[in-house]
Amino acid sequence: MSNLQSGPSMHYLHQRLLAYPAGQAPAGQSLIALLNDLLVRLEPAVTTATLLPIYSLPLWDDPEGHDRADTLLLMVWLLADDAFCELTLYADEIISLLASSNQLMDTTHPNLDDEDQREELIRLTLNGLRLKPQNETDQQAQDRLLMVSSSERARVVAASRAAEERAEAIRKALAEKRAREAADKYTRE
Q1: Alpha-carbon gap, residue 89 to 79, rounded angstroms
Q2: Do residues 109 and 25 both lie within one domain?
Q3: What is the pLDDT of residues 96-143, one digit of tens each?
Q4: What's the CA gap between 189 and 186, in Å, rounded?
């Protein structure tokens, strides 16, 4: 039994991200209007109460410092594609995903020329909406997300570093113990 709804193909979504338009990113009221339109488009029955949290998203009243798209804008760009209109999506899940978007990746400004960063962004977006790429099983989608996740990679590196530090401390303690035993043996003889 599948828990994840099938979404667009990875290839299609990679092409979508590569087509992200250059130029000034929407900010402030323009971004609120864009988000409102997107949410109404993806869930036509959305209520005004459900839309209220978009006003607490990072909207950058000063667009000058935001010439590079961040994770939030790239997710909005992905979700604005017609392929998502055919799916069953819920505005509260979309808002929750967008609210956490800039904390999901190690970088808040993914490099669209980097295939791994594009794939991570796509998989995080799909996963946040309980979707999986077309022609993948739920397990494949989860496994591949873990493989490309920069935050998971950072967690594994930190755990490896901690394990290595523990192993080094144990080696050091054993060496000291052997030295003490050798010294005790020497003094007894």
Answers
A1: 10
A2: yes
A3: 888 888 777 767 778 888 888 899 989 999 998 999 999 999 998 888
A4: 5
Tokens of 137: 């099983």
Domain that holds residue 33: 7-136
The reply to whether 1 falls in a domain is no
Q: What is the mean pLDDT of the chain?
A: 83
- Give me the amino acid identity at 162: A
Comparing CA positions, the residue from 103, 105, 102, 100 lying closest to residue 145 is 105
Domain annotation covers residue 47:
yes
Please check whether residues 159 and 73 belong to one and the same domain: no
Rounded Cα gap, residues 135 and 133, in angstroms: 6
- C-beta neighbour count of 162 within 10 angstroms: 10
Largest CA-CA distance found in the chain, in angstroms, rounded: 89
- From 102, 104, 27, select the one nearest 61 (Cα to Cα): 27
pTM: 0.71
Handedness of CA 111, 115, 121, 122 (dihedral sign): positive
